[in-house]
Design brief:
The structure is a single chain. Helix content is 34%, strand content 18%. With 114 residues, the chain is of the alpha+beta class. It has a domain at 44-114: Transcriptional coactivator/pterin dehydratase (Gyrase A, domain 2), CATH 3.30.1360. Strands 1-2-4-3 form a 4-stranded antiparallel beta sheet. α2 (54-71) crosses α3 (98-110). The longest helix has 18 residues, at 54-71. The chain starts with 22 loop residues before the first helix and ends with a helix.
Length: 114
């Protein structure tokens, strides 16, 4: 069972050398990450958020960037008029780690919920 309050946790440094979450473990975490999709055989999660215009999407991406710097865990981000797509993976282990789901929960809070 995953921790239902992932947003209260802080990302821990991942130096590699540990196995990524299995697809089954990632699916378990995904139960608490509504709106996120598990992709690439369970090695990445992604969510697209919608906004009214470019300025709102840009403002949201700016908040995610600040969060990423604070947490030391950096997503891939694509955005444009009315959308922002956030992709999370722990690149040092070429898969998912609890940190990715912590970031997802914190990003959901920035977006105003799940």
């Amino acid at each position: 069972m995953t921790d239902p309050d992932l947003a209260a946790k802080t990302c821990t440094p991942c130096r590699g050398g540990i196995p990524p979450l299995s697809e089954a473990e990632a699916l378990n975490y995904l139960e608490d990450a509504l709106g996120w999709d598990l992709l690439d055989n369970g090695t990445r999660i992604e969510r697209t958020l919608r906004f009214s215009n470019f300025r709102e999407a840009w403002a949201f991406v700016d908040k995610v960037g600040t969060l990423a710097e604070d947490e030391g865990h950096h997503p891939d981000i694509a955005f444009g008029w009315g959308y922002a797509t956030i992709s999370l993976q722990t690149k040092k282990i070429k898969g998912l780690h609890e940190n990715d789901f912590i970031m997802a929960a914190k990003i959901d809070e920035l977006a105003g919920g799940g």
